[in-house]
Amino acid sequence: MDKEGRQVRDLSRGTTPGVNEISWDGMSDDGRRVGSGVYFVVVDFASGERFTTRVVLAR
User: Fold this and answer.
1) Does residue 20 have a pLDDT over 90?
2) Residue 17's pLDDT band (boundaries 50, 70, 90)?
3) Residue 11 buriedness (CB in 10 A; 0-12 / 13-18 / 19+)
């Protein structure tokens, strides 16, 4: 999500239950490069728990 709370990219496609490693190439879901700035990674677990962390993208 960006700082306005808008979803930028859904990286969950292709993941399965268990341990996963996900990387982000700085692109949005529609294939555009996003600008430098602060973004939030939100992980929702099947248990109902949510993990959120902040990342900084610098180009």
Assistant:
1) no
2) confident
3) middle
pLDDT score recorded for residue 6: 95
Q: Compute, in degrees rounded to 10, the torsion defined by CA atoms 27, 28, 31, 37.
A: -50
> Cα–Cα distances in Å, from 32 out to 9, 24, 35, 43, 53?
10, 13, 9, 22, 22
SS3 58: coil
Residue 46 or 49, more confident: 49
Indicate the pTM of the whole model. Answer: 0.80
Pairwise CA distance, residues 49 & 38, whole Å: 23
